[in-house]
Specification:
Helix content: over 70%
Shape: rod-shaped
InterPro entries: BAP29/BAP31, BAP29/BAP31_N
Strand content: under 5%
Number of strands: 0
Number of helices: 4
Number of domains: 1
Largest sheet: none
GO cellular component, one term: endoplasmic reticulum membrane
Order of helices and strands: HHHH
Pfam families: Bap31
Subcellular location: Endoplasmic reticulum membrane; Membrane
Organism: Acanthamoeba castellanii (strain ATCC 30010 / Neff)
Length: about 130
């Protein structure tokens, strides 16, 4: 259960980071956002690997509960509802982990693009300054 709260926290944090990267900010604020993500890039890869592990676990859990038929429940009355709830939770966890994993990959890719954009802007300014000095 603790892992799912971590996944939700990572999901909220990655949404905030993606918003920070995609918002049309002035260059000095955008460079601050890129530097912030540069500082946490290695932990992001660790979190991505943990979310990958949770995603595989959730996929195996969904697969385990999807093959159960109704003929097994003839002897107990409340068992179908309990199994339905377990299957629903497994599917929810799978979709939650999958969305978090995808969003983390998008954050890392947008970080790379924003960093290269800032490098190109800095190179452009340097070349303009050299041209004006000539």
């Amino acid at each position: 259960m603790f892992f799912w709260w971590l996944v939700v926290g990572v999901l909220v944090a990655s949404i905030a980071l993606l918003t920070l990267l995609l918002a049309p900010l002035p260059t000095f604020l955008a460079s601050g956002a890129v530097q912030l993500i540069n500082a946490i890039q290695r932990p992001l890869w660790v979190v991505l690997s943990l979310v990958s592990w949770v995603l595989v676990d959730a996929a195996l859990e969904v697969r385990k509960h999807s093959g159960v038929s109704d003929s097994h429940y003839a002897e107990r009355a409340g068992l179908p509802m309990m199994t339905h709830n377990i299957k629903w939770r497994a599917e929810r966890n799978f979709y939650l982990a999958g969305f978090t994993w995808t969003l983390l990959l998008i954050v890392l890719r947008c970080h790379y693009l924003a960093r290269s954009k800032l490098e190109l802007i800095a190179e452009n300014r340097r070349m303009r300054a050299e041209r004006q000095n000539q």
